[in-house]
Structure formats: C-alpha cells, structure tokens
Design goal:
single chain; 207 residues; alpha+beta; NADH Oxidase; four-stranded antiparallel sheet; 7 helices; 4 strands; globular; binds flavin mononucleotide; oxidoreductase activity; Nitroreductase; flavoprotein
Length: 207
C-alpha cells in the first residue's frame, strides 16, 4: 500500500476483529514502527505492554463496560439513543492488546524541548501510537484505541508504577475488513469536518 492509501484505510476497529493470531515477525515490525517515532529531546518516553492473557483482558473489558455506563448516564435524548448503538471496544474479540505508557522521567531532568511545554512528552507517545496504527494498517491488521478507563485501574491491573501513565489500551489483530467510513460517522455520532473548516491563513480565523 502506498502511504496515502494507508492513511485513508486506517480505521478504529471494534467489531471486525477475527481473533486470529498475529505472527511474531509482524508484531515485531509494528512495534518497531512505534519505537521509530519522533520524541521530544529523543526521550523515547514510551513503553509497550503486550497483553495476551484472557483473564487480564476480561478484567479490563468489564472495567470498560462500567465506564461506558458512566458516560451513557450523562447523555439524554438522541445522544443517548445514538450512543446506545455504538460499540466502544473489541478487547476480547481482538487477538491481543498493547498498552502504551508515558514515563516523564525518561531522559529527565534535562529533556531538550520540554522545558516550556510539559505535554511534549505526551505528544511523543501519541506519535508512537500513530506509527503503530499506520504500520498495523499496512500489515492488514486492525487497531482499536480504548480510552474508557481510569488510569489507576490499568496501573493496578498491569503493575504500572504510579509515576507512569497508561496512555492507550490498543486492541490489535486481523480483521474481516476495514470499514470505508468511521464507526462514529456510520452511526450518526459525528462526521469528519471539511479540511477548509480547520484551515486558517496567516492568523487564527484568517480566511
Ligand atoms: C485518544 C483516542 C481515544 C479513543 N478512544 C476510543 C474508545 O474508547 N472507544 C472507541 O470505540 N474508539 C475510540 N477512539 C477512536 C475514535 O472514535 C476514532 O478514531 C474516530 O471516531 C475516527 O474514526 P477512525 O479512527 O476510524 O478514522 C479513540 C481515538 C483516539 C485518538
């Protein structure tokens, strides 16, 4: 696949996982792509926890179901009805999970480029995640990012130290297909904005 095709084909996957295994060499390439991401001060503040244990994944999935209920409880009317139709995770249907964490102490104290913007470390982790997502797409795999969780729950579940943040729980694996349209768009939750709506000339708001 050419690069722009990978970008266009990437989807957040929930319902389309087959549960078939991911070959070790493929997983190594996908993780290698994540680890090749740019990072502030070359701090490489990420770690990747590969979770295969069904017991661990079931415990996470139950926690996510509870957080889904928390979010749903704040919705009314059309939003509540629309959200009711949306699946927000494929934790058990996918082949495995990769939890990506952020450790602000890596490369510290003198992280070059982070002195004024503390979040630059977090941005770096998100770039690793995007590399992983695109590499998985190029390999014909699906990825689903799950963020319906409390960080402390995931810390406890996986033995992550208190100073390290679990940034993403990613479900990974072969899929029946990647949808042409994002799930949230298909269900009428939100649509992708036209590029022109987010483009500014010279100054914010400039046409
Ligand atoms: C930070 C972040 C957190 C997300 N959390 C969830 C989630 O908990 N559950 C879910 O179903 N999708 C989640 N998504 C996926 C988005 O819903 C999805 O990217 C968006 O609807 C656009 O669809 P696409 O990725 O298929 O283009 C998350 C995406 C990001 C970037």
């Amino acid at each position: 696949m050419d690069f722009y095709e990978v970008v266009a084909r990437r989807r957040d996957v929930r319902a389309e996982f087959t549960g078939q295994p991911v070959a070790d060499d493929v997983l190594a390439r996908v993780l290698g792509a994540a680890h090749a991401a740019p990072s502030v001060g070359m701090s490489q503040p990420w770690d990747f926890v590969v979770v295969r244990d069904p017991v661990t994944r079931k415990a996470f999935q139950e926690h996510v179901a509870g957080e889904r209920d928390v979010f749903a409880a704040g919705l009314t009317g059309e939003r509540a009805r629309t959200f009711g139709r949306i699946k927000v995770e494929g934790v058990l249907e996918s082949s495995l999970s990769i939890v990506v964490t952020y450790d602000p102490d890596k490369g510290a104290p003198a992280v070059l480029g982070r002195h004024a913007i503390a979040d630059a470390g977090l941005y770096s982790v998100c770039l690793a995640i995007q590399n992983l997502w695109l590499a998985a797409t190029a390999e014909g795999l699906g990825v689903g990012w799950v963020s319906f969780y409390r960080e402390d729950f995931v810390r406890d579940l996986l033995g992550i130290p208190a100073s390290i943040r679990p940034v993403a729980w990613l479900c990974l694996g072969p899929v029946t297909h990647l949808g042409d349209v994002p799930d949230l768009e298909r269900h009428g939750w939100r649509t992708r904005l036209p590029l022109a709506d987010v483009l500014h000339s010279e100054r914010f708001g400039g046409k």
